[in-house]
Each structure stands twice: as structure tokens, then as C-alpha cells.
Amino acid sequence: MRDPVLEIRGLRVDYGLGDAAVHAVRDVDLTLHRGEVLGLAGESGSGKSTLAYGLTRLLPPPGVISGGEVVYHPVDGPPVDVLSLSPARLRAFRWADTSIVFQGAMNSLNPVHRISTQLLDVIKAHEPRSAAAARLARARDLLRLVGISADRLESYPHQLSGGMRQRVMIAMALALEPQVVIMDEPTTALDVVMQRQILGQLAELRQRLGFAVLFITHDLSLLVEFSDRIAIMYGGRIVEEAPAADLYRRALHPYTDGLLHSFPALRGARRELTGIPGSPPDLRAMPTGCAFHPRCPRAFTPCDTDVPPLGRPADAPGRDVACWLHPVAEPVPR
């Protein structure tokens, strides 16, 4: 197995304090290995974006990290405890080691500044001693890297298409050659043709530059083709994690199976689209036991009283699941 570049252990994120706190992320364990694409899927409200903002310490108030750890492993040097970084070191860590492409990123560009200004500001903020000519050359190279002509540097955001603006944001995320790129639903507002182009471009860049990607989306069909591994999130917890091909062929958790049957197969025999009945749980009043049991067609006695641990089941080695249908032989280590 490849070396880990980012480890999340027992991460808990709340909104609010005390008894009124909403537990949006609950004891999440994830490991991102160097150079891989880890997909994170789930319905809206499952905690995916909160997890991304928590591990980068970008949570807006009243969000707070109430427990756990996030460890970054640089190429050279000792591991870094992200949650204990000082403000100055945290500022250096962002963009240089870990960057993020935000949800709705194509609308994140400042409409009154040229693309050149916004790209150059990122480089100058982290490399203040670099020469202006070198920064400009780097900005031109970044645009070419994502398939945009360098002469578009002097354009304003409104002069670019939605797909081009999204590519500019990806270029900005890669400006300082980070080891980890977090992408929070970066293609949601784009049509399927542009989604395919951007994902193909991202896959090529990943192969060329070697960075790891945490790709967050509600569209599991995208992750099946693009990811090396996929983690499924529900009610603030990870409920299944497996290699993408294994998960597509055989989903262990009923929630994962429901997600897979919510979109048509691109190849092979036709299959019935069943979807998932009901709605995601209210995080302010979570059901007892397994959070999915009120919607689960296969729920039985322990599901409504006991929370299943995430771990490796005896009947499916090499993957993790939190479901009483597959008793865990080896829990996820903490």
C-alpha cells in the first residue's frame, strides 16, 4: 500500500456548543494515500463539506472541532498535526501543502479583478521573494496546464465560460504544487459534457504531478470511474469504504446499494432504478442505533438500538463497512 499523505482519526465537528450542539461529523476515520483519488459520496446533509472544512480548519462559525486529529505527512520531514498549527503555520500549510476547490468554485473568482491579478496574488502571498516576471510566467504555465490559452490571463471572470472559470480555480489550487487537493463538488453546476472534460483534465494532471485528491460529491456515478477508493458518508459517519471497482460490483451497506441503484448503468444489462425511500436524518434528532435503519429495507433487531462499528467484515476482506448485516472481524484502529 502507498504511504499515507493525510490521516483523519476520530474527527468530530459540531455546530454550536453544549447540549444544543449539532453533531455534523461523528468519529470519522479516513486515510488518503499519496497520489490516489479518494472519493467521498453521500446525500446532501451527510457531512461531506463539513468534513472538508474541518480538516482544513475553514469552518465558519458556529462550527467547532470537538475531537479527533488530522495528520499531514510531507514528502520530507516529520508528520504535521494540522489541528494544532499556529495561525502563521496554518496559513503556510494552506495552498502550499493542501489546497481546496470549493463548492460552486466557478463563482469564487472576484468579478472586478482580472484572472492575472487573482493568480498572481496567490503566488506572491506564499512566495513574496519571487520576481514579478517569474510569477507571471508561472501564472501563464498554470493556465496552459488546465487547457486555457495564456492570453486569457487579462480576462475578467465574466468573460470566461463556467467551465473555464472552474479550470482557473483548479489552476489556482495547483499554483504551489500541493500534495493534497480537496475538491468539494467542483462540477455540480456544469453540464455533463463539461464535467467529463474537467474530470479528464484533472485525471491527467494527477498522473503528471502526483498529488492526491479527496473528491467530494453526491454523484456516485462520477466517483466509480474517477476514484481509486470510495468512502460513503451518512448521518455524519463513514458507513462503507472500498476500492471503487469492488464497491460498484458489490455494495455491502444497503445505503451504498441504494445510491448505486439511483442512476442508470452506462454499460451492461438494464437494471431497475429504485432509489432510497425517505429523507436523510435530522442531525438535531438522530435515530437510535444505525442512523440508516428507518430507511433501510433490510433492517432487523439490533439496527434500531446499537450503532454498528466501522471495520473489516469477515465476509469481505480488504474493505470496511458499518452494518449489522456484515459483522466486523477487525474494527478500524484508532
UniProtKB/TrEMBL annotation:
GO terms for molecular function: ATP binding; ATP hydrolysis activity. The keyword Repeat does not apply. Pfam families: ABC_tran, oligo_HPY. SUPFAM superfamilies: P-loop containing nucleoside triphosphate hydrolases. Residues 8-260 form the ABC transporter domain. Coiled coil: none annotated. Keywords: ATP-binding, Nucleotide-binding, Transport. Gene3D superfamilies: P-loop containing nucleotide triphosphate hydrolases (3.40.50.300). InterPro entries: AAA+_ATPase (IPR003593), ABC_transporter-like_ATP-bd (IPR003439), ABC_transporter-like_CS (IPR017871), Oligopep_ABC_C (IPR013563), P-loop_NTPase (IPR027417). One of its GO terms (biological process) is peptide transport. Belongs to the ABC transporter superfamily. PANTHER family: MALTOSE ABC TRANSPORTER, ATP-BINDING PROTEIN (PTHR43067:SF3), OLIGOPEPTIDE/DIPEPTIDE ABC TRANSPORTER, ATPASE SUBUNIT (PTHR43067). This is Dipeptide/oligopeptide/nickel ABC transporter ATP-binding protein.
